């Protein structure tokens, strides 16, 4: 590569500074607002699936992960896979913000010929490490990346963000067994425990708890955190990323609120998919800004 | 509580509740229940997408929610059939036919269990939800499985008729259906028989053979070609397996060319099946296979995709004109 290549962003350790904490909160706000904007272009989208993991996206991409802004294919970068691929609308603005592709592409979201669809495509979108759309594949994909990294002598980490409804998919548990067996310590799974899936409350559809006990029983280190508490979340992710003494993969169960930031979305599971007319968009934006903690 | 939302804002449960096409599956299953059949309806976290929420409300004791575990659902349905029930499992066609292919082959078809598999939102109808959600290989996969009937109804009336006819069908069935928005082709009482194509006229220049959601636009295309003075026949090939070979050979006798139209790859689907018949029988009739070429479908709003792949009425007619000269 050329000498103009940007420097790698090395993950930080220890406590977050107040300024950096504020910055991460701003990035989560940016993620939510851009999601509202892009869904206005498509006229349909998964607002609430992004709103539950906006802090997770922001913490990973602006703090935890080892990346080189502007160089999406850097071989030593940390990887990210997403089981809940329908939250990609919140990831694209972040990837563009990191210089992985031209932000102007965002304006053509879901249009014919544009690479940005409801689910992310690694062959079309620079910065997307693994395609998704069929629930349950993301942990296996991330595991494969970690195993390949080990074989190549690389120490990058892989983070897989999965839904709590996704825990119903059999492949999740095949991946959980094999990751522990292979001592894939560079693999971290984050379960976005927002409580809802398409058909209703996860615990009414097919219950998944006790998640902590299940992942522990499969041989993983398990942490549980408030997925909207940026201080707790980013601090935990720093610790997990920096801990080189582990031999077990790590599962973080992030307790979240589906639709976090827009009051009526937080209480109605039908908002898994929907559309806000411009008249309502302004009200939603005001609510989101008010709740950003800035 | 905040002020009510604008009339143009929506969330999907409200929107789907307004789509009458999505009620057909539930209504068809209710027909069977009323006839005394031991129906069980199974979904994998998509009851509002396939409309089974209506059946669940009417018959909660016959509704089984599997969450996001499609393979588990298909094998469990095989168990239900083995125990004497009449299971219908429904999920997106991309997941049913591709993710659950092995369960369908080994647990359902090889075991000769009369499970009814309903793959919905097929073809490219899920638009920009992603190529992962498009089912453009499912006909080819499903029709290669022995003893599995493969049927793609053209509209809601035909779907309901096919569900009614399935009560006396001993084999497992793969129903390939759209998203409940296909325009009507048939009346409620139109006849339906598995394996018997429905003729919409004979033609000397061309016979169009279409299946599923392509029947309506292909019929429109046939009308516009006829209006130009061309002699165009038409077959609704709702059953892809067992295929109505006689109807195809009869069309090959009438017409100089046959054009198959499907929302599917041109490899191995309806076009492939018709090609096999023509080659097997040495029928010297030109075949044009119209569908999606050997490539991954793009993403865009559905109507834009149908136009792009020339799978709307204008596109189908244009493709026929090109072929006929």
From TrEMBL, chain A:
The keyword Cell membrane does not apply. Residues 32-276 form the Transketolase N-terminal domain. Its EC number is 2.2.1.1. Keywords: Plasmid, Thiamine pyrophosphate, Transferase. Its cofactor is thiamine diphosphate. CDD domains: TPP_TK. GO terms for molecular function: transketolase activity. It is an enzyme of class 2 (transferase). Belongs to the transketolase family. PANTHER family: TRANSKETOLASE N-TERMINAL SECTION-RELATED. This is Transketolase TktA. The gene is tktA_2.
UniProtKB/TrEMBL annotation, chain B:
Its EC number is 2.2.1.7. It comes from Phaeobacter porticola. It comes from the Bacteria. This is 1-deoxy-D-xylulose-5-phosphate synthase Dxs. PANTHER family: PYRUVATE DEHYDROGENASE E1 COMPONENT, TRANSKETOLASE-LIKE PYRIMIDINE-BINDING DOMAIN-CONTAINING PROTEIN. Pfam families: Transket_pyr (PF02779), Transketolase_C (PF02780). It is an enzyme of class 2 (transferase). SMART domains: Transket_pyr (SM00861). Its cofactor is thiamine diphosphate. GO terms for molecular function: 1-deoxy-D-xylulose-5-phosphate synthase activity. Keywords: Plasmid, Thiamine pyrophosphate, Transferase. Residues 19-184 form the Transketolase-like pyrimidine-binding domain.
């Amino acid at each position: 590569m050329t000498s103009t290549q940007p420097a790698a962003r090395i993950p930080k350790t220890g406590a977050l500074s107040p300024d950096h904490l504020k910055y991460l909160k701003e990035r989560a706000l940016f993620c939510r607002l851009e999601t509202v904007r892009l869904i206005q272009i498509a006229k349909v989208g998964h607002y609430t699936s992004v709103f539950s993991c906006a802090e997770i996206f922001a913490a990973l991409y602006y703090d935890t992960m080892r990346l080189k802004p502007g160089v999406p294919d850097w071989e030593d970068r940390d990887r990210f896979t997403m089981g809940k691929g329908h939250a990609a609308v919140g990831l694209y603005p972040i990837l563009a913000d990191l210089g992985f592709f031209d932000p102007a592409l965002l304006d053509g979201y879901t249009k014919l010929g544009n690479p940005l669809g409801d689910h992310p495509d690694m062959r079309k979108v620079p910065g997307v490490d693994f395609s998704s759309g069929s629930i349950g594949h993301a942990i296996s994909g991330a595991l494969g990346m970690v195993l390949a990294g080990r074989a190549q002598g690389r120490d990058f980490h892989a983070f897989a963000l999965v839904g709590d409804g996704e825990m119903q998919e059999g492949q999740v548990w095949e991946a959980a067994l094999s990751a522990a067996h292979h001592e894939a310590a560079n693999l971290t799974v984050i379960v976005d425990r927002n409580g809802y899936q398409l058909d209703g409350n996860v615990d009414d559809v097919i219950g998944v708890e006790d998640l902590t006990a299940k992942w522990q029983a499969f041989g993983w280190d398990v942490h549980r955190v408030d997925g909207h508490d940026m201080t707790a979340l980013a601090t935990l992710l720093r610790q997990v990323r920096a801990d080189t003494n582990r031999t077990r993969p790590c599962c973080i169960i992030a307790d979240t609120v589906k639709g976090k930031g827009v009051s009526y979305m937080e209480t109605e599971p039908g908002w898994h998919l929907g559309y806000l007319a411009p008249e309502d968009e302004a009200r939603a934006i005001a609510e989101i800004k008010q709740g950003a903690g800035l | 509580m905040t002020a009510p939302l604008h009339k143009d804002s929506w969330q999907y449960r409200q929107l789907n509740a307004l789509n009458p096409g999505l009620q057909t599956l539930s209504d068809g299953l209710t027909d069977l229940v009323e006839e005394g059949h031991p129906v069980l309806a199974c979904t994998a976290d998509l009851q509002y997408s396939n409309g089974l929420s209506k059946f669940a409300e009417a018959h909660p004791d016959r509704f089984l929610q599997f969450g996001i575990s499609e393979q588990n659902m298909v094998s469990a349905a095989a168990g239900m059939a083995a125990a004497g029930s009449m299971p219908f499992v429904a999920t997106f066609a991309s997941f049913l036919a591709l993710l659950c292919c092995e369960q369908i082959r080994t647990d359902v078809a090889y075991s000769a269990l009369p499970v009814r598999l309903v793959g919905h939102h097929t073809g490219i109808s899920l638009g920009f939800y992603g190529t992962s959600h498009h089912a453009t290989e499912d006909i080819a996969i499903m029709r290669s499985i022995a003893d599995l009937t493969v049927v793609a109804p053209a509209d809601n009336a035909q779907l309901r008729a096919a569900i009614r006819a399935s009560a006396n069908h001993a084999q497992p069935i793969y129903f390939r259906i759209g998203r409940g928005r296909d325009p009507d082709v048939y009346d409620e009482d139109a006849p339906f028989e598995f394996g018997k194509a429905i003729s919409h006229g004979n033609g000397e220049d061309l016979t169009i053979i279409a299946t599923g959601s392509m029947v309506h636009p292909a019929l429109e295309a046939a009308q516009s070609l006829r209006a130009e003075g061309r002699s165009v026949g038409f077959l609704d090939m709702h059953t892809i397996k067992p295929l109505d070979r006689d109807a195809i050979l009869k069309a090959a006798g009438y017409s100089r060319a046959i054009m198959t139209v499907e929302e599917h790859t041109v490899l191995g689907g309806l076009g492939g099946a018709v090609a096999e018949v023509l080659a097997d029988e040495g029928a010297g009739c030109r075949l044009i296979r119209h569908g999606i070429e050997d490539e991954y479908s793009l993403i865009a709003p559905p109507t834009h995709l149908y136009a792009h792949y020339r799978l709307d009425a204008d596109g189908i007619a244009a493709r026929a004109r090109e072929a006929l000269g």
